[in-house]
Design a protein that fits this description.
The structure holds two protein chains of two kinds. Chain A is built from twelve helices and no strands. By secondary structure, chain A is mainly alpha-helical. In chain A, helix 7 crosses helix 10 and helix 9 crosses helix 10. Chain A is flat. The two termini of chain A are 24 Å apart. The mean pLDDT of chain A is 82. Chain B is an all-alpha fold. The N terminus of chain B is likely disordered. In chain B, helix 3 packs antiparallel against helix 4 and helix 9 packs antiparallel against helix 11. The chains are: A mainly alpha, B mainly alpha.
Chain lengths: 314, 290
């Protein structure tokens, strides 16, 4: 097999292996809970015999444990995530109404991270020192603290932005999402800015760049031609991983701004002890995270000719 | 002859100053270190000398402004914010400390075992680490809350499992470099047991890096635990906690009484900034010494 094909096969194999373990953990969590699975699912609620029969059928509790997992996994592949204990509706239905809000929030935040983070990191000169100081400070600000402060200043006191909700779509939604996206992105922006600047600095010290400087080539030309090209790949990879990391932070941010996405639904379902929904959302988050990570890893290895295919890029 | 001996001795004396924990981390690192010591002291003795009972509810004094009785005013239930901040420093520090302690021990053992045995043991450990790595800490903690109910113990254990891969990866890659050095082969030839070599020779040589990264994990764990308490999944009321106070202060923010949320936020940010700076300096130091 061609080295590229073998590399892709190995990465996809690793992806499937990790997915398998992760889904097993999400499913097996049901058996970690105290008490029998059935009593855990019903949580002391008074439930009708039909509802119990329905739960037993949904989780195939009459089957051995590993069979239950395989049947559940088979259902997941067909888009069947079971049905909610609270709403009675199918989980995939409930999630499809909410997944758009989460995706939009993540998209806006990701654009912010890449635009602002990379731009702030690329700025040379005196400005860069202040960017570094600001970035170090911003990295100590948890997303929820940023959200609270932004809400206080821009929603409550200045009234420029709404303090909760998703709006009516289009620009109204973007307007509603501004504060949440900034709060979600702030730590990652700082991280990407610092990373970019460090990469540029270490690239500037490289021999071929020093040679170019001593030959008197214009600074702009050197940066564009020699520095950015070499610094870009590792920076973009790390930035991509950071964007994947936004998924976890979005749960808290959605709850604060009441955005009605998957994250808020997850917290809601934990409070209402609606375990099938919790399971499904955890699975979606983890699967998205794994797929994004693998895609970034593959892209990095294929696009950068200096990374040899045999070795794992670390 | 005398000149050569001076030349060979002088740098070695200069190269080895007192190697205390806080040497070689620069001014910002040292300031951060003392800030952390100060917060730890407040957490240790503060609760015995607070001006008011942190849990005394008095609705007549709700949102009382800062005064000689209530230095930072009161919250929605009339409880003294200053006293609650002091008492809350305990959960703010002890939670992350427990997370980092468990994750560091577990991660170090996994990393050393993987490196020493290599082969399929290494492959298995790497695969498990990768799988855990796919679960963000907050998500593991939320899943644990769904299973065992809200509270600090479930969140702490969940986060320590989620943080183990960070430490394990770093220990593994550092120990791998160490493993290929000649002194390890020399010890092996002398018939030393693998456990003894790992524990008495490899571990001390990677310990600087472990401490540095454990410090960075402390900052992350503090943020995660505060976020969990903020949404009500961590520390339970009426126990005072910084994250929970930001959450409790949310209603105050919408009513124009932001003092509780802001004060707790400031303490979180200062502590995390100090921990992050110290951690970054320690990483720098251990890398420059390696």
């Amino acid at each position: 097999m061609a080295p590229t094909g073998a590399f892709l096969a190995r990465r996809v194999g690793g992806l499937l292996g990790t997915m398998f373990v992760a889904s097993f953990v999400v499913f097996g969590a049901l058996y970690l809970a105290p008490g029998s699975p059935l009593s855990f699912l019903t949580q002391g609620r008074s439930v009708t015999p039909e509802a119990i029969a329905q739960l037993e059928a949904q989780y195939h509790l009459d089957q051995p444990f590993f069979m239950q997992y395989l049947i559940w996994l088979g259902g997941v592949f067909k888009g069947d995530l079971g049905s909610s204990i609270i709403f009675g509706d199918s989980v995939s239905n409930l999630l499809s109404q909410r997944i758009g809000n989460t995706a939009l929030l993540l998209l806006v935040a990701a654009v912010l991270v890449l635009l602002v983070g990379l731009f702030a990191g690329l700025k040379p000169g005196v400005f860069s020192e202040s960017v570094m100081v600001a970035a170090t400070a911003a990295m100590a600000v948890p997303g929820f603290v940023a959200a609270v402060v932004l809400m206080l200043v821009f929603a409550v006191q200045l009234g420029w932005f709404p303090s909760y909700g998703m709006g009516d779509g289009g620009f109204d939604s973007i307007w509603h999402l501004t504060l949440p996206a900034v709060a979600l992105a702030i730590t990652s922006i700082a991280f990407v800015a610092r990373l970019t600047q460090n990469a540029i600095r270490s690239e500037m010290r490289a021999d071929h760049v020093q040679t170019a400087i001593s030959r008197g080539l214009p600074y702009r030309f050197i940066v564009q031609r020699h520095v950015i090209r070499n610094a870009a790949m590792p920076v973009l990879t790390a930035a991509g991983l950071t964007v994947a990391g936004l998924i976890a932070g979005s749960v808290i941010i959605e709850q604060i701004f009441q955005l009605g996405g998957l994250g808020q639904f997850l917290i809601d379902s934990v409070q209402k002890k609606d375990f099938p929904v919790v399971q499904a959302i955890c699975l979606i988050y983890v699967a998205t995270f794994i797929v994004l990570n693998t895609l970034i890893d593959i892209a990095y290895t294929l696009l950068d000719p200096r990374v040899s295919l045999g070795k794992k890029a670390s | 002859m005398t000149t050569t001996s001076i030349v060979t001795q002088a740098p070695s004396k200069k190269m080895r100053p007192r190697l205390s924990f806080i040497s070689g981390i620069g001014l910002t690192g040292q300031i951060s270190f003392w800030v952390i010591i100060a917060v730890a002291l407040i957490a240790a003795v503060g609760p015995y000398i607070v001006p008011a009972d942190p849990n005394a509810v008095d609705l007549e004094y709700a949102y009382y402004p800062p005064s000689q009785w209530f230095w930072l005013g009161t919250d929605a239930s009339g409880r003294d914010i200053f006293s609650r901040l002091i008492v809350g420093s305990r959960t703010a520090l002890l939670g992350p400390l427990a997370v980092v302690a468990m994750a560091t021990v577990l991660g170090t053992v996994l990393g050393l075992v993987a490196v020493w045995f290599g082969g399929w043991v290494d492959a298995l450990i790497v695969r498990v680490i990768d799988a855990i790595f796919a679960f963000p800490g907050i998500l593991v903690a939320i899943l644990a809350t769904a299973l065992f109910g809200a509270g600090l113990p479930a969140a702490t254990i969940a986060l320590s499992i989620a943080y183990t891969p960070y430490i394990a990866r770093i220990v593994r890659s550092a120990a791998l470099r160490e493993r290929n050095l000649p002194y390890i082969s020399a010890l092996q030839v002398q018939g030393r047991h693998g456990f003894a070599i790992s524990a008495r020779h490899i571990l001390p040589n990677v310990s600087g890096l472990i401490v540095a990264n454990a410090t960075l994990c402390f900052g992350l764990a503090l943020i995660d635990l505060a976020a969990l308490s903020f949404i009500g999944f961590g520390v339970q009321p009426p126990t005072a906690d910084w994250g929970a106070m930001v959450g409790g202060g949310m209603s105050g923010i919408l009513q124009g009484e932001p003092l509780e949320a802001i004060a707790a936020s400031v303490l979180i940010v200062i502590t995390v900034a100090a921990v992050n700076t110290l951690g970054a300096r320690l990483v720098q130091r251990s890398e420059s010494r390696a």
